[in-house]
């Protein structure tokens, strides 16, 4: 069962806010020293904390918006350590390098440019052929953010002459399942979260792109693999469990949820992506949800899902596992409150 975040470790917080640690180094420190840090999408609350921290820094140092932009996008790529450390301290458990890239991406003047046009794709392809995958240089040529250029090229343009579209064949599904399980399950890794999709696409001969492979796996094949080849269907019992699990997190806003942490040994058919989509469906079923706080929505959903649904279909149970019931989740909630 998930528990609220532990009080922040002051030494670790200072480390995260001052040292530009690589992903591999962060993972190493998490294993050897118990370093706790956040990954993934920044929550709405974190966005507000960052915004306020930047404004406070600007006011305290009597800087203009133009001066702040010069710090964010220094022409010589020199990072202002004091600025970035102060901003990072506003979002505990976020590494400074993650805050750096997130802020530069979300405030970038080339952001939110909308749909890519064929002419832009051609410019991007030409730029990569001349400069390689030096995305900042490519960005200047194309007029799009470096991260947008990278994602557009990798997900849609790379090897597009080889790429298949539309319905996946049984042979393709079997091949993708074999590749993912060899890279994860056979090596004791998490099949939903420890996958390098660029490598997967390459192993499939780039006939399907990294994004195609990721979506096919997380939305379809993963749950079938976990259910002995049968594709489970979302049930009212699943909805009941999801509501109770979200309620147990005690978050202030659902953008704070790390959806990868919700599955457990007995309830792990659904990927993080599927759970997030299902939650949004439940949330939008509440009339007037747009004007409500997360807690108000949560209170209504807990009432709507108060009655335990019928027991799960035995066909959805795997050998050696007992299907997790809504009553089990509710009992755990009660214990956590006590």
UniProtKB/TrEMBL annotation:
Origin species: Neolentinus lepideus HHB14362 ss-1
One GO term describing the cellular component: nucleus
Chief site of localization: nucleus
Chain ranges of the Myb-like domain: 108-157, 160-221
Subcellular location, record wording: Nucleus
Listed GO MF terms: DNA-binding transcription factor activity; transcription cis-regulatory region binding
Taxonomic path: Eukaryota, Fungi, Dikarya, Basidiomycota, Agaricomycotina
Region (Disordered): 306-338
Start and end residues of each HTH myb-type domain: 113-161
Keywords: DNA-binding, Nucleus
Name of the protein in question: Uncharacterized protein
InterPro entries cross-referenced by the UniProt entry: DMTF1_DNA-bind_reg (IPR051651), Homeodomain-like_sf (IPR009057), Myb_dom (IPR017930), SANT/Myb (IPR001005)
CDD domains according to UniProt: SANT (cd00167)
Any single Pfam family the record assigns to this protein: Myb_DNA-binding
């Amino acid at each position: 069962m998930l528990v609220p975040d532990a009080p922040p470790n002051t030494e670790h917080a200072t480390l995260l806010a001052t040292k530009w640690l690589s992903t591999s180094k962060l993972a190493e420190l998490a294993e050897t020293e118990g370093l706790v840090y956040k990954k993934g999408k920044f929550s709405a609350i974190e966005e507000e904390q960052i915004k306020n921290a930047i404004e406070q820094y600007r006011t305290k140092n009597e800087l203009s918006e133009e001066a702040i932009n010069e710090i964010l996008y220094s022409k010589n790529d020199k990072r202002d350590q004091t600025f970035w450390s102060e901003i990072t301290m506003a979002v505990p458990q976020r590494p400074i390098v993650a805050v750096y890239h997130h802020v530069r991406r979300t405030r970038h003047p080339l952001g939110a440019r909308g749909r890519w046009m064929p002419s832009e794709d051609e410019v991007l392809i030409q730029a990569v052929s001349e400069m390689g995958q030096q995305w900042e240089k490519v960005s200047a040529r194309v007029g799009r953010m470096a991260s947008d250029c990278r994602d557009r090229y990798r997900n849609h343009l790379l090897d597009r002459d080889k790429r298949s579209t539309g319905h996946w064949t049984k042979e393709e599904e079997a091949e993708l399942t074999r590749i993912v399980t060899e890279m994860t399950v056979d090596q004791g890794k998490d099949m939903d979260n420890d996958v390098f999709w660029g490598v997967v696409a390459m192993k499939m001969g780039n006939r399907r792109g990294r994004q195609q492979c990721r979506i096919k796996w997380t939305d379809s094949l993963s749950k079938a693999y976990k259910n002995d080849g049968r594709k489970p269907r979302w049930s009212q019992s699943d909805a009941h469990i999801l509501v109770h699990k979200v309620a147990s997190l005690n978050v202030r806003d659902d953008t704070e949820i790390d959806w990868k942490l919700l599955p457990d040994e007995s309830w792990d058919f659904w990927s993080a992506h599927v759970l997030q989509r299902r939650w949004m469906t439940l949330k939008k079923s509440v009339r007037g949800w747009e004007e409500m706080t997360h807690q108000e929505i949560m209170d209504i959903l807990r009432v709507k899902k108060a009655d335990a649904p019928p027991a799960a279909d035995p066909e959805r149970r795997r050998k050696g596992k007992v299907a997790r019931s809504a009553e089990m989740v509710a009992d755990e909630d009660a214990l956590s409150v006590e």
